[in-house]
Amino acid sequence: GTTLGTAAARSGRYFGTAISASKLGDPAYTTIAGREFDMVTPENEMKLDATEPRQGQFVFTAADRIFDWAVQNGKRVRGHTLVWHAAQPSWLQSLTGSALRQGMIDHINGVMAHYKGKIYAWDVVNEAFSDSTGGRRDSNFQRTGDDWIEVAFRTARAADPAARLCYNDYNIENWSWAKTQGVYTMVKDFKQRGVPIDCVGFQAHFNSLTPYSADFRTTLRNFAALGVDVQITELDIQGAPATTYAAVTADCLAVPRCAGITVWGVRDQDSWRSGDTPLLFSGNDRKPAYDAVLDTL
Ligand code: XIL
After folding, report:
1. Rounded to two decimals, what is the model's pTM?
2. What does the DSSP assignment read for 184-244?
3. N or C: the chain end with fewer CB closer than 10 Å?
4. Can you tell me which residues form the catalytic site (predicted)?
């Protein structure tokens, strides 16, 4: 029968979900996830604190549980995420300067070596821009120097030339937002100078404070025109209005370089914002938003 994954595949796109390793033992969860989606993002298990809890000692137990489940069920995997200001192990938080820069490089190399040739796309850097100004977010990585993002991308390209390399962020969906312009300027500069970047991930966590706007399509088009793929990487929408889910889906379909859509969890009860009931399933049931997405794909 038709599923989100098979429907998206008709236009050469994927439809993915975040997966949590702790839920792979829940048959109601794996039944829906296994049936509907053809791309998987580990929700937390590939983050820095999970994969390198002590410096130089890499742990892939939970990440591999998701990776193996995905591959055994015919799905591809998005790696999330190599460098981020959050979910940092304490050893990393205690480093500064060149030691932190080297720690970042070693982390990228360690994680990417384990999955070399097996990951569709990596979120190399996550959320490096400030919410209000359009400039960089203050973080320990930022304090090692402005070039930390391009160093991360060059390191990642050398570590696994087969993976698409993405910059991923939230509140960059509306073209009028300063943060969107800040990221756009960086990606344009990277493309002009030959810094290896293949894709931009738009998290797309829409709520009443940062609502969906129809100019998301303009944003996707403008980034794609820079010569990168665009991906909707963590979609959830407060209240899950069917019309908004349909509009986001149509926006991706309207942009040839929009490679696919990932929702940030399977059922409302799995959401990091479960109180917002922002996803496509409630318990075992498809919500109206599900039908709207499927009809649009
Ligand atoms: C969230 C997870 O969903 C939660 O389980 C965790 O407690 C915190 O992180 N942007 C991202 C994701 O890039 O990694 C975040 O995921 C949501 C916001």
Report:
1. 0.98
2. HHHHHHHHHHT----EEEE--EE-SSS---TTHHHHHHHHHTTT-EEEEEEEEETT--HHH
3. N
4. 234
pLDDT digits (tens, 9 = 90+) for 133-145: 899 999 999 999 9
Angle at 161 between CA 21 and CA 127, to 5 degrees: 55
Separation between Cα atoms, residue 153 and residue 83, nearest integer Å: 10
DSSP annotation of 276: G
For a mutational test of ligand 1's pocket, the pick from 49, 125, 267, 272, i.e. the residue with the most ligand atoms closer than 8 A to its C-beta, is 272
Nearest CA to ligand 1 atom 15: 43
Give me 144's structure tokens. Answer: 């090692």
Which residues are near ligand 1 (CB < 6 Å)?
Answer: 43-44, 126, 203, 234, 272
Nearest-angstrom CA–CA distance, 195 and 182:
17
The values of phi and psi at residue 80, to 5°, are: -145, 115
For ligand 1, atom 7, which residue shows the shortest CA distance? 272
Look at the block and give the residue holding tokens 């000692």: 57
Q: Ligand 1, closest atom to CA 80?
A: 14
Work out the burial of residue 168: count CB atoms within 10 Å of its CB; fewer than 13 is exposed, 13-18 middle, 19 or more buried. buried
> Going by CA atoms, what residue is nearest to atom 3 of ligand 1?
272
Rg (CA), the chain: 18
Task: Give dist(CA 243, CA 262) in Å, integer.
Answer: 18
Taking the centre of ligand 1 as the mean of its atom positions, its distance from the CA of residue 53, in whole angstroms, is: 18
d(CA 219, CA 3): 28
Q: What is the dihedral of CA 249, 253, 255, 261, to 10 degrees?
A: 50
* 213, 215, 220, 224 alpha-carbon torsion, rounded to 10°: -170
pLDDT tens for each residue of 146-190 = 999 999 999 999 999 999 999 999 999 999 999 999 999 999 999
The C-alpha atoms of residue 255 and residue 18 are separated, in whole angstroms, by 23
